[in-house]
Amino acid sequence: MKTLHRKPTKKLLGLVVLASSFSALAGTVQAADADADIKPFAMTFHVDRAYGHSILKGKFSRAINRLSASSKTSSKPENATNLCVAYVKSKDLDKALTACDAAVAALTSRKMAIDKRTGRDDSLRVSVQADLSIALSNQGVLFAAKGEHDRARKNFLAAIELDFDRSKAQENLLRLNSVES
User: Fold this and answer.
1) pTM of the model
2) Rounded CA gap, 49 and 66, in Å?
3) What average pLDDT values come out for the chain (181 residues) when binned by 10 residues?
4) In sequence order, what DSSP letters do the residues of 37-80 get, joined into one string?
């Protein structure tokens, strides 16, 4: 299972949380935030996979170009998750939605296939659930940025239900509630 911190090993196993302020993306977030009390929504991406280091360094165009260059690369759900985050940070919400949808659909399909099998390794199930939780929470942030609060809430609740990285989805849900009030 992936951890949420860096380990001094050859391969980085962690996930890094990327805080994103959507004041430029969704006027509703900034407008509701007259006192600047609302923290930015949080997105998670895979640093140890497909151009995650480019995203970490703020080189979103590079990550987008590399990840979208071949269908083989962009068809992997982890890569689609990273592509979603890179597009959101580049303020291309339509393409971000396509990438987020691809990640959620692929991971949902994987989870359903694993759930049908009995006697499967629980670590695989946990890993897929973790990735699906991340993808759902990221998609919820995107919906919030687009002003689609009901869809965002549904995604955050689904991510929380999967019980991985629950804190980020819960934080995003609290932020969404603050925006709406």
Assistant:
1) 0.77
2) 12
3) 35 35 26 43 87 92 89 78 94 94 95 79 84 94 94 95 78 89 77
4) -SPPEEEEEETTSTTHHHHHTT-HHHHHHHHTS-HHHHTSHHHH
The pLDDT of residue 154 is 97
First-to-last C-alpha distance (Å) of the chain:
37
Note the pLDDT of residue 68: 87
Q: Which residues contact 175 (CB under 8 A, 6 or more apart)?
A: 38, 39, 40, 41, 144
pLDDT of residue 73: 62
Instruction: Spell 21-36 as b/e; 16+ CB within 10 A means b.
Output: ebeebbebbbeebeee
Buried/exposed 122-143: b ≥16 CB within 10 Å, e otherwise: eeeebbbbbbbbbbbbbbbbbb
Residue 16: strand, helix, or coil:
strand
56: number of Cβ within 10 Å: 14
Q: What Rg, from alpha-carbon coordinates, does the chain have?
A: 16
- The predicted pLDDT at position 84 comes to 95
For residue 165, report the phi and psi dihedrals to the nearest 5 degrees.
50, 35
The pLDDT assigned to 147 comes to: 92
For residue 180, give the amino acid letter: E
